[in-house]
Write a structure and sequence with these properties.
The complex is a heterodimer of chains A (about 120) and B (about 110).
Chain A (H helix, E strand, L loop, with lengths): L2 E4 L3 E5 L4 E3 L1 E4 L4 E8 L5 E7 L5 E3 L5 E5 L4 E6 L8 E9 L8 E2 L3 E6 L1
Chain B lengths: L3 E4 L2 E4 L5 E7 L5 E8 L3 E10 L2 E4 L6 E3 L9 E3 L8 E8 L9 E2 L3 E5 L1
Parallel strand pairs in B: 2-11
Antiparallel strand pairs in B: 1-3, 3-8, 4-5, 4-9, 5-6, 7-8, 9-10, 9-11
């Protein structure tokens, strides 16, 4: 079984400040890792994903994440946030092998960017 | 435009009634999924299907049913046996060939029991 822990349920920051949203996972097998963003009353949109190779992954809207296998973490970062980044962010994991494609999600982190 | 269409966006159900949420995709994806979202709970998997005429229970399947008669369609029925159905429901789809495939989501449907 896999699990995902998002360490902060809410993160308030000021505009143009840097932000880090933390994600830790648990799995007995190799995994793929994902970050999704959800704006109010909408579906989820993929920000970025780690499959293999470089541990630093760049995504849309200036976000990036770093995979750390020894710490089983996949933290999301942005050097300077905008008001428009206010949304809920979900970390997710799935097995990298086998034929089961379903994702396991964390409970989400609400990022609020204040002026 | 390619994508996933969920309908209706808002649905009200009286206690004791079954309701069906529609999900259609034109992305030619083999796999489809239904997730339930509650505040502070993240997304929990209800059912998923990786091929037509086959589907598997997820983590919270009790009180729900699905069918997969066509590749493009994966409707979810919320039955009267679901004790707390008020939630935001998200349909998703993905390819099954290759690794690391992205799961794409629809815009969601709000179900409220009145």
């Amino acid at each position: 079984a896999q699990s995902v822990t998002q360490l902060d349920s809410q993160v308030p920051v000021f505009e143009e400040a840097p932000v880090e949203l933390r994600c830790n996972y648990s799995s007995s097998v190799s995994v793929y890792l994902f970050w999704y963003v959800q704006y109010p009353n909408q579906g989820l949109q993929l920000l970025l994903k780690y499959l293999s190779g470089s541990t630093l992954v760049k995504g849309i809207n200036g976000f990036e994440a770093e995979f750390n296998k020894s710490q089983t973490s996949f933290h999301l970062r942005k050097p300077s946030v905008h008001i428009s980044d206010t949304a809920e962010y979900f970390c997710a994991v799935r097995n990298s092998g086998g034929s089961n494609y379903k994702l396991t999600f964390g409970k989400g982190t609400l990022l609020t960017v204040n002026p | 435009d390619g994508g996933i269409t969920q309908s209706p966006k808002y649905l009200f159900r009286k206690e004791g009634q079954n309701v069906t949420l529609s999900c259609e995709q034109n992305l030619n994806h083999d796999a489809m999924y239904w997730y339930r979202q509650d505040p502070g709970q993240g997304l929990r998997l209800i059912y998923y299907s990786q091929i037509v005429n086959d589907f598997q229970k997820g983590d919270i399947a009790e009180g729900y049913s699905v069918s997969r008669e066509k590749k493009e369609s994966f409707p979810l029925t919320v039955t009267s046996a679901q004790k707390n159905p008020t939630a935001f429901y998200l349909c998703a789809s993905s390819p099954t060939q290759g690794g690391g495939n992205t799961i794409y989501f629809g815009e969601g449907s709000w179900l409220t029991v009145v």
